[in-house]
Design brief:
This protein has about 170 residues and is mainly β. About 0% of the residues lie in helices and about 40% in strands. The protein has no helices and eleven strands. It starts with about 35 loop residues before the first strand and ends with a strand.
């Protein structure tokens, strides 16, 4: 008996039909075996469905707890690819730390939005960021300096072609 979890959709492929996807099991998820088989269900443009099961094992990484990743304050660590880590604390009051990393110098931006998609606070205005792990604090204020209200917000991080978002819960 197996446990199947939907991980991704719309994974891009090259002209040869090859694609890749990395998924890290988030903190708090149930543990599964350390190695597994992957079932791939593919739909072509005509919505025809095909099924394939991997013929090789795949490794699984776990984040034991928020912050398992290298500490940006220790320096020297460079991620293999851009990453936006889970904000901590979350939920938060009055502030939270958002950690991110880039593998090479690139233009980056970080913006907080409310659930309606309105820009609340620009934390990083498109500027070059050096390789390594970094962190930035959000004090729960908007761009005008006023306190944002209790609610759900989203932080969006862009580094080159990489884009990721994380949910933030502000509790006043």
């Amino acid at each position: 008996m197996g446990l199947w979890i939907a991980l991704a959709s719309n994974i891009g492929v090259d002209d040869g039909g090859d694609g890749s996807y990395t998924w890290r099991i988030p903190h708090g998820s149930s543990r599964v075996e350390d190695r597994c088989r992957i079932r791939v269900i593919a739909n072509d443009g005509n919505q025809q469905q095909g099924l394939d099961v991997s013929d090789a094992d795949f490794s699984i990484e776990y984040a034991e707890k928020p912050g398992d990743e290298p500490d940006p304050s220790q320096g020297g660590s460079v991620p293999a690819a851009p990453v936006l880590l889970d904000p901590a604390p979350n939920p938060f009051n009055p502030s939270t730390t958002i950690r991110y990393g880039v593998s090479e110098r690139c233009a980056a931006s970080m913006v907080v939005y409310d659930v309606a998609g309105r820009r609340i606070r620009t934390l990083i205005e498109s500027r070059p960021v050096d390789p390594g792990y970094h962190s930035i604090d959000w004090d729960g204020r908007n761009d005008a300096g006023a306190m944002a209200g209790t609610g759900v917000y989203f932080v969006r991080f862009t580094a080159g072609r990489f884009v990721a978002s994380r949910k933030l819960n502000l509790i006043r």
